[in-house]
Amino acid sequence: MARVESKIAAESQLDRGDIAVELRGVKREFVQASGEHVRGMDDVSFSIPRGQFVCILGPSGQGKSTLINMVAGFDQPDAGEVIVGGNPVRGPGADRGVVFQRDTLFLWKRVADNIEFGLKARGVPKAERKETVQRYLEFIGLERFARSWPKELSGGMRRRVAIAAVFANDPEVLLMDEPFVGLDYVLRATLHEVLLDLWSRTGKTVLFVTHDVDEALALGDRVLVVQGGSIVRDIPLNFSRPRKLEVLESPEAGRARVEILRSMGVPDVA
Amino acid sequence: MAIKMSWPKADTARRLLLGAAGIAAFIAVWWLISLGSREVRVPDPGSVLSAIRENFWSTAALEFASLPAGGLASNLFATAQAAVLGVAIGLCLGLPIGVLAGRSRLVRTVVEPPLMVLGVVPVVVLLPFMSIWFGSSVLAQAGLTIFYATLVISVTAKNATANALGKYEKFGRSLGASSRTLVFSVVMPAIAPAMVGALRVAMAAAWGFTVIAEILGANKGIGRVIQVFATFQATASVIAALVCLGVLALIIDAVIARVGRWYTSWQE
Q: Where are the beta strands (DSSP E) in chain A?
């Protein structure tokens, strides 16, 4: 598969200060127990302007999680640089919030306290914390559940709280690692709505990892297709927002879909 | 925090009834055995009950025999003091060791071999050291408990901490939590359920270790009382002391369990 260096047409015109996330020549190799070397990331470079919603697509085990881990600071590259908000990434931090695949809510804290956690950890004054928590509870429609325990909530409600907790902490960049995998379409659509609502209110930069093409088409401004540790496609999605279901019907969406599937290595069914 | 009380429902009442029937059956079998045996070998349940009643608040009948003053009640209290003290010290020692080991692979590598070696020592074997080191202070009775409790609590804390961090550390750090916040706001609550279990195990063992230490070298406590009754072949009184000890141990365990359940009611 030919590697394509990602070049956004307008990139050269962008002011450096407008770049939220930048990777330069990032390489990462893993050594298996068998001694085999696996390229987690192979000379990856791209940049993401502030406020963009970028979906990272690709088959499993091809570098998506490695990429998110690099930006989050859970892993360090063997070569190259990862830069967020102009600063090189040295480890995890509140400027890069992460929503995980698994449910990571603190079960011993009530819903409101979960949303408050990051604010409290960073020393935000009490009055401001309470006001922010109340605001986000209203955004996700769970004001009535402020004092509930996570165990009393359904899976979908817990996801909403997790997303709110990360958004409320005001990170520069939001990293989401297949957060809705395994959920049914209807629930996923509800969560998409919550996510896009929070995104449009706050204007955060989002990196959303998924292996579902329709999800990427529903959410993203841009799709980066990852295969074999490289970005093989960088496709802008210029559909209007809010994205209705009918968007999926349009010829542009159809073409984008086929292009993405091809670049992921999906074969024509014989 | 609202305390949820669970009132006995139909099947709980049935379970209590069946449990009571089991105890009644046990007493019935005991009584039958005692009929065919001398008082000194198997006293009947009735004489044990009167022994409890006679000796509970004072042991006037045997005070001339250098029995510790105050009857079963005050000696139970002395034993309880030593047992609880031992577990408390074990908690203060074991919790930090365990959490530190759970956080750091380096600390784990250093601390695990000694813990493993100490873990195979039969605790009772350490008794002679207790009188050498602590003379006849309450620490001599609590010493074995301290050893065992520290071990159990540190190993439980180590494993629970490592698990909790594996689950929550990345999320916590990406929200801006410092190491201190992680330990006190994430690890401590997360390991609470496991620690309640470890406390109950340590407490249960504490009774046994404390009584043994008292039998062999104390001047008060239920163990000393049992030892004196035994020299007078007052079998019913020995059993009486054991029954009271057992009931006390059950009550304290039930209290720890109840408080533990309330404190960790957030669990799924």
A: 19-31, 37-49, 53-57, 79-84, 87-88, 96-99, 173-177, 205-210, 222-227, 230-236
